[in-house]
Amino acid sequence: MSSSQPSSSSKKQTLFITSLIILWYSSNIGVLLLNKFLLSNYGFRFPILLTMCHMSACSLLSYISIVFMKVVPLQQVKSRRQFLKIATLSVVFCGSVVGGNISLRYLAVSFNQAVGATTPFFTALFAYLVSFKREAWVTYAALVPVVAGVVIASGGEPGFHWFGFIMCISATAARAFKSVLQGILLSSEGEKLNSMNLMLYMSPIAVIVLMPATLMMEHNVLEETLSLGRKHRYMWLLLFVNSTMAYSANLLNFLVTKHTSALTLQVLGNAKGAVAVVISILLFKNPVTFIGIAGYTMTVLGVVAYGETKRRFR
Questions:
Q1: N or C: which end of the chain has fewer CB within 10 A?
Q2: Domain positions in the chain
Q3: Is pTM beyond 0.85 here?
């Protein structure tokens, strides 16, 4: 009887973690595909407004999750200096999300994911430039196929668009810069925030930054959005689901890390990109070439090799 108890508990734990991973995959891939559908196939051409919707949902749902549902303990901002650091991270984060959403208007999801896979290259670059943190030469060597793969994939991409590509690279670089900056700015024990509390404080700042940017940079945004809402009765529902998924992706990212490990998350993240590529090709029927697939495969293998060498030569 005593031996079956741990087995039953272990099965429940495995089922729980598996369910978390499936939900995490679904929310991450779902928000990416819905972004593409809204921005490219649906006529909703406002990536900054879309990002503001995401941040508004993150702001409200983070507050409900932490303050009312007690998903994680509430961590207080202890000083004006700490608040300014969080505000800086929020602006960089805004830039990365807006850039990613803009790129989806011009690029296929498959190519967008191939470029996004170069995040480790930019993370290593910024870690060296900002904090002079050096890795073993083998780790840097593993980044060569990461970059080479994207160069190859670019050459084989039928729908290649220079502006979309520049925005995608900028978004990837901003995402990497945010993670390096976060490690530096919130490194002291008294200032560290878990990802859920960081989202709670970053999201409202992002909404405040994005609101004037939307009105100034996206011409006739209110009139056209209302017109589109009257034309397509499901648009508001799609925006609501999309924004809720954006928050769910962050929440589930935190929970998967908490119940597994950062290394597991990295491995799952690599696989998630490949799954997103396959699903997007099946859904949007965007043409792919053998060169494009070979380039993306090289990038993913480079990312895997980078993660492994970083773990071994730590």
A1: N
A2: 20-312
A3: yes
